[in-house]
Amino acid sequence: MIGRGxxxxxxxxxxxxxxxxxxxxxxxxxxxxxxxxxxxxxxxxDPDRLLAPALADRFDLNxxxxxxxxxxxxxLARLARAYLGxxxxxxxxxxxxxxxxxxxxxxxxEVVSAPDEDFRPSVDNMIAAVSDRTRIVYVxxxxxxxGIHLSGAEIRRLHAALPDHVLLVLDCAYEEYVxxxxxxxxxxxxxxxxxxxxxxxxxxxxxxxxxxxxWMYGPDAVVDTVRRIGTTFPVATPxxxxxxxxxxxxxxxxxxRAETARSRRWLTGxxxxxxxxxxxxxxxxxxxxxxxxxxxxxxxxxxxxAQGIVVRRLAAPAYADCLRITLGLPVELQAxxxxxxxxxxxxx
Length: 348
Description:
The structure is a single chain. The model is unreliable at 1-8 (pLDDT under 50). The chain has helices at residues 27-36, 47-59, 71-83, 100-105, 123-129, 152-160, 186-192, 220-228, 237-248, 250-273, 297-306, 330-344; strands at residues 14-15, 66-69, 89-93, 110-114, 134-140, 167-171, 196-201, 214-217, 277-279, 285-289, 309-310, 322-326. The protein is an alpha/beta fold and 348 residues long. The chain is built from twelve helices and twelve strands. 39% of the residues lie in helices and 15% in strands. The two termini are 22 Å apart. The relative contact order is 0.18. The chain is globular and about 60 Å long.
C-alpha cells in the first residue's frame, strides 16, 4: 500500500498488484447492483437460494451442492474451522498462496509445506507428506503467486493417493483464465468423489472484487457443514444482484478471457526479450524474476513506484528476486514494460 515515506510522494496511477480484472464487471452487473440498493434496508435472506441456481445454470452443476460466501476466503476459513483443530495438519505446497497457513493457525492446526519444484507444486512431494494427522490438502490451481497450473491427470493422481478422511480443497479462483489443453475443470472430480471441494470467486474474471462474493461446490455433507457455520446474512444484496447479472453476460467474460490471454502472451514475450525470466502463467498475472543482483526486483519495484506503477513484491524469501504483475489494460502493460526496460538500461 502506498502511503508512507517516499512512496507517498508519487500517486499511483497504474495498479497492477492485486489481480483484479482490468476490464471491470459487466455493465449488466453494475446496473443490477445499483437497482438492488433500493432494497438495502433489508437483510438478504439465504443468498444460496438466489445465487446457487444461477451458478448451476451457468456452469451446468447441481445447485444443491453449492454454498455461497463472503468471498472465497470466507469459505476457505469455514472449511478450516470444520475440518482442522489441535493435532491435525493442513498440507500445502511450499511457496503457494501465502495466506493459506493462516487458516490452519486460526484453528490451532499445523501447516505442512511440501517442497515445490521451482514454484511448481510437486504431487510426489505432497503425497509423501501426507500423514495420519492430515485433514486438508490445499491446492490452488492455477497457483498464486506463480500462476502455474497442474494438469487434470496430476490432480487426480494426488487425490487417488489421499485417505478417504482427507479433504482435497481445490482453490480455483483463476480457473476461467486457463487455456492449457491438459487442464480439467475441477468440478468434474468434485462430482465423482466424496472428499473433494472446489472454491471459486467473482473477484477475478467477473470483475467484482469489491463485491466480495465466493462460492463452493462440493459433496452434500461438506456443503451442509459449511452452510451451518456461516455468519448470519453473509453477503450483501447488491453483491448477489451483481453476481447473478454477471453470470448471464457471457460475452463479457469471453472478452476478458481473450484479452487477458493476449496480454499474457505479449507481456511474457516482451519481458523475456529484456532478459528477465517469466514463470509460465495460466492466470491473469505473471511472476517475473530479476536475475541480476545489480538490477534487483526490489530496485525495480522502487523504480516503478516512482512512476506511479504499483506491482506486487512478496514477503516470502523464495520470491525475493521476483515481482508479480497483474495483467492490466494494454496501455498499462506497455507503460510497465517501458519503465522496466528503462530501469534495466540504467535510465531510471
